[in-house]
Amino acid sequence: MVNTTSIPRFNLKAMQLAAGLKDGLSITSRARQDAENLGKDFEEVRKIVLGLRPSDFDHVWIKRDEKKRLILNAQGKEIAMDVYSPRIVAPNGEECSVYLKLMLTATAIAITSIQSFHQHRK
After folding, report:
1. Given this model, what pLDDT does residue 67 score?
2. Beta-strand relationship, 110-119 and 95-106
3. pLDDT (tens digit, 9 = 90+) per residue, 19-55?
4. What is the dihedral of CA 20, 26, 28, 32, to 10 degrees?
5. Residues forming a β-bridge with 106
6. Domain encompassing residue 8
7. Does pTM top 0.90 for this prediction?
8. Cα–Cα dist 90/109, whole Å
9. What is the rounded CA–CA span in Å between residue 80 and residue 73?
10. pLDDT band with cut points at 50, 70 and 90 for residue 109
11. Which one of 1, 22, 37, 48 has the minimum C-beta count within 10 Å?
12. Total domain count for the chain?
């Protein structure tokens, strides 16, 4: 479910700071596979996150169930992720925008977690 707010939930600079740390970036297996399909390894994805600009922000994604009810995390808060659409060079050499869904976790170490990384789907 998409929340069309134009205001990101997470501070981009804080996500980039976390992503720049050795253990400060995680990628789901699905997002990793999608990134590899676009010719991007872990470190290339890290560079893309570090290069995000505020103008790359697209919308906030909010997790809902099949009946469109909010799904809450263990703390009782909604699960929201910021979606960015940076442009990258695809394996065929052409430039394209990607759908990059990420969030900042607040654990002992801040981790920028990438949940999606793929070309826009129609």
Report:
1. 92
2. antiparallel
3. 999 888 999 888 999 999 889 999 999 999 999 999 9
4. 40
5. 110
6. 2-119
7. no
8. 32
9. 10
10. low
11. 22
12. 1
The position carrying tokens 């826009």 is 120
Instruction: Return the amino acid letter for 26.
Output: S
What whole-number distance in Å separates Cα of residue 59 and Cα of residue 80?
Answer: 10
How far is the C-alpha of 67 from the C-alpha of 75, rounded, in Å? 22
The CATH number for 54's domain is 3.30.2310.40
What are the φ/ψ torsions at residue 67 (nearest 5 degrees)?
-100, 15
Tokens for 118, please give them. Answer: 């793929």
Q: Scan for tokens 């697209």, then name that residue.
A: 58
The C-alpha atoms of residue 18 and residue 106 are separated, in whole angstroms, by: 11
Q: Are 44 and 24 in contact (CB under 8 A)?
A: no
Total residues belonging to the chain: 122
